[in-house]
C-alpha cells in the first residue's frame, strides 16, 4: 500500500515541479475508494451525515489490521488531520480524529489531537481538481511548538478519512518533518484510498 500512496504523491509532485516530496515510511488503508463501490458510503456518511459510530467501528477495524502488522508495530504517535476551528464548529466533530482515536485505542499508540493545526481556513478539497487541491493546502498546516516540545516520537502516523491526491497529507507531512527532523518516521493511514483519481 505504501508504494501506491508514494507513487501517487510522487507523480503529483513531479507534475507540479515540487521537489520537496518525501516518501512515507508506511501507508495503510482499510479499503480502495472507487466510484460506485459500496464502502464509499462509509467515509461519506461519517463526514457529511454525522455517522460517528461508523467512523469508530471502521477505525477500530483499521486499528486491528495495523496492530497485527509488524510494519506498524513501532508507531508511537497518532496525529489526525485537523479541521479549521470554524469547520469543526459547524460540523461538530473531526472525522479524522474519530478514526485516529479508534486506531490509538486498539494499537496503544499515543493520540495527539493538538499537535497540528490549520493556519488558515481552506476550501473543502472534495470538488477541487488536483492542481487546485495542492495549492489550497500548501503551507496550510503548522505544528504547535509547545505541544511538540513535550513529544519525542520515533514513528508518527498521520490519519485521515480518505487519501485522494495526497495534497492534505503531504502538507501535514511537511510541517511534521520540519519540526521533528529526519530521524522520525512518518506514515499515512486512512479508511479509504482512491485507487484511480
Characterize the main sheet.
5 strands, parallel
Secondary-structure arrangement, i.e. CATH architecture: 3-Layer(aba) Sandwich
Number of strands: 7
**Fraction in beta strands:** 15-25%
H/E topology pattern:
HEHHEHHEEHEHEHE
Oligomer: single chain
From the alpha-carbon coordinates, what is the Rg to the nearest angstrom? 15 Å
The pLDDT mean sits at 82
Domains, number: 1
Helix amount: 40-55%
Shape: globular
What is CATH's topology name? Rossmann fold
Strand order of the largest sheet: 1-7-6-2-3
The structure class reads: alpha/beta
CATH domain class: Alpha Beta
Care to describe what's here?
With 197 residues, this protein is an alpha/beta fold. It has one domain (2-13, 35-193): Rossmann fold. Helix content is 45%, strand content 18%. It has helices at residues 2-16, 40-48, 52-68, 85-91, 95-107, 130-137, 145-149, 167-180; strands at residues 27-32, 77-80, 110-111, 116-118, 141-143, 155-163, 185-193. The strands form two sheets. The protein has a five-stranded parallel beta sheet with strand order 1-7-6-2-3, with helices on both faces. Strand 6 (155-163), helix 8 and strand 7 form a beta-alpha-beta unit.
Q: Outline of this structure?
A:
With 197 residues, the chain is an alpha/beta fold. The protein is built from eight helices and seven strands.
Strand and helix map with partners:
Blueprint: H1 2-16, E1 27-32, H2 40-48, H3 52-68, E2 77-80, H4 85-91, H5 95-107, E3 110-111, E4 116-118, H6 130-137, E5 141-143, H7 145-149, E6 155-163, H8 167-180, E7 185-193
Parallel strand pairs: 1-7, 2-3, 2-6, 6-7
Antiparallel strand pairs: 4-5
Helix pairs in contact: 2-3, 3-5
Amino acid at each position: 500500500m505504501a508504494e501506491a500512496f508514494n507513487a501517487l504523491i510522487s507523480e503529483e509532485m513531479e507534475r507540479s515541479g515540487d521537489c520537496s516530496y518525501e516518501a512515507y515510511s508506511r501507508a495503510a488503508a482499510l479499503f480502495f475508494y472507487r466510484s460506485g463501490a459500496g464502502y464509499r458510503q462509509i467515509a461519506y456518511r461519517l463526514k457529511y451525515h454525522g455517522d460517528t459510530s461508523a467512523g469508530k467501528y471502521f477505525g477500530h477495524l483499521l486499528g486491528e489490521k495495523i496492530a497485527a502488522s509488524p510494519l506498524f508495530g513501532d508507531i508511537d504517535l497518532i496525529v489526525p488531520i485537523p479541521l479549521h476551528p470554524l469547520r469543526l464548529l459547524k460540523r461538530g466533530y473531526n472525522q479524522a480524529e474519530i478514526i485516529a482515536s479508534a486506531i490509538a485505542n486498539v494499537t496503544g499508540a499515543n493520540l495527539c489531537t493538538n499537535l497540528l493545526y490549520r493556519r488558515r481556513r481552506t476550501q473543502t478539497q472534495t470538488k477541487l481538481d488536483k492542481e487546485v487541491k495542492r495549492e489550497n493546502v500548501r503551507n496550510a498546516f503548522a505544528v504547535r511548538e509547545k505541544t511538540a516540545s513535550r513529544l519525542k516520537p520515533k514513528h508518527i502516523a498521520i490519519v485521515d478519512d480518505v487519501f485522494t491526491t495526497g495534497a492534505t497529507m503531504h502538507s501535514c507531512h511537511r510541517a511534521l518533518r520540519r519540526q521533528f527532523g529526519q530521524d522520525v518516521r512518518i506514515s499515512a493511514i486512512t479508511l479509504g484510498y482512491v485507487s484511480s483519481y
